[in-house]
Amino acid sequence: MGKTKAVQLQKDKKSYVSYIMIPVLFVVIQILYRTEILNSYWYQILQLACINGIVAMSLNLINGMTGQFSLGQAGFMSVGAYTSAMLTKLVFQSAMGNPFASYGLFFLALLIGAAVAAFIGFLIGIPSLRLKGDYLAIITLGFSEIIRVLWRVFPFSGRAKGLNGIQKLSTFPIIFVAVIIVMILLRNFTKSRYGRGCIAIRENELAAETMGINTTKAKIKSFVFSAFIAGLGGGLYAHLMMFINPEMFSQVKSTDMLLFLYAGGVGSYSSALLGALIFTMLPEFLRFMGEWRLVIYALILIIIMLNRPKGIFGKHEFGFMRFGDKESAHQKADNGGLISSFVERRKAKKLAQAGENNGGAGKQ
Amino acid sequence: MLEVKNLVVNYGSIKGVDDISFHVDEGEIVTLIGANGAGKTSTLRALSGLNKVGTMTSIKFMGEELTKMTPHQIVAKGLNHVPEGRRIFYSMTVKENLLMGAWTDKDAATIKKNMERAYTLFPRLKERESQIGGTLSGGEQQMLAVARALMTGGKMLLLDEPSMGLAPIVVRGIFDIIQELQKEGMTILLVEQNANMALSIANRAYVLETGKISLEGPAAEIKANDQVRKAYLGA
Which of A243, B45, B141, B204 could form a disulfide with A164 if both were Cys (CB 3.0 to 4.6 A apart)? Predict the structure, then answer.
């Protein structure tokens, strides 16, 4: 009895710590920025990395949790970006004066942008998610190209020139809060009945069907939600860069998002976020190498994928993203997290050493 | 309980199941036996809505027509399918797998009751509660698949090849549990290649041959039939 209580207390303390960590992290970054240890260039990169993290997490919902392969996350990003940018630039322009009005309308524009992305996700999802297999990958790939071409054609989206003169409304506090909100939303979705259904679909679609899960509905729900969050990320992106053009949302962008997700660790939101943070910043760290940085970047990726096929951080969730029962030893092994595998390797090494000490004579 | 009339399953222009009719009464174990490609699995998939059926087909489960329903609606009616090849959720723990079985159930008390029932039937699963599904042995996975289907709290089970790829002693255990389920009042439609085992526990049997029923009757009678003995029982 006393033991279980102690365990409970420890668990509570842990989640408490991770909630405390969030504001601490925010304050530390702010202090670093104010004292100019973190210059404005890196500050900008950090914000970009956070937005990439949002989109990578949205991709994890559909690729990692539901097991459907989307190749066109940049398409949804562009819908969110263009919609919200057109709203703040063309529609709300006159109403924006004081900071309250402009931020209020900015949030509204972000939400509308995300909702439009979700709606388009819904339109694409209905036909393609009824089918099993790789159709979604093909359709999303096609969609992201179509939408890019459409932005080049429409006069109100600035054609190939794109939209410029967007107000810089995405600030670090807003992006930071958006990341936290998105994490909580995704965590709660995954924890819910529908989320569990999505994981069952990923594991075995036929079995999920025989459990009484409406698989089409569950897949569409998670796809639409994923598109919504990607659209939100796109809106933040437009108001961070202050300029968007169709080429920003090409296939390369979608591939980047996949890269963040798979290098970080597919199947975990926190790994996706960390993957996005690391791999957005890495090319900037390597900038001193000039043109060689892309070679090194690719080399690092290859090494990671060879050594850690489940991603750097594996399927583990960190801090407050972890939910449900405590991971069992089996799950830990299956998740292939960085820390647990490190501990595992040390244990094995120790064991081997002990074995050598005991039976060293016999070996020689 | 289950009344199937003129069941037709087409794969393109090929007839997988060609106009068969059969019925399963409440509390019975009925087995469908036959060689590879006879249409056994196609029949079960049709019953649970996973295969499209012909236009003249009628499948009545407790008086309700199932042919127009989707798989998840059929599960909600109480007809549960344990698909071929176990198909457990690999990265979920045993407990999580069982909870997935209770998907259609929203009442925590019933879920708990069903869970306890599953653990009494399969004490082995209780031992491995926190182990992930993928690391279980073949027999344990099959137990988990059956237990998971029981969690839906349905009235009838469709078992597809529960003996596939298992050691004889493990198969014996699984079949004992099938008999035990019958005693609890469960109705079972069993599809098997292991005709000997299936016939020894079933009440009635149908023999499928290239999509058609070639023989039907009480299991003991079928077992004694010369043709069946030659073709399926190796005697």
Answer: A243
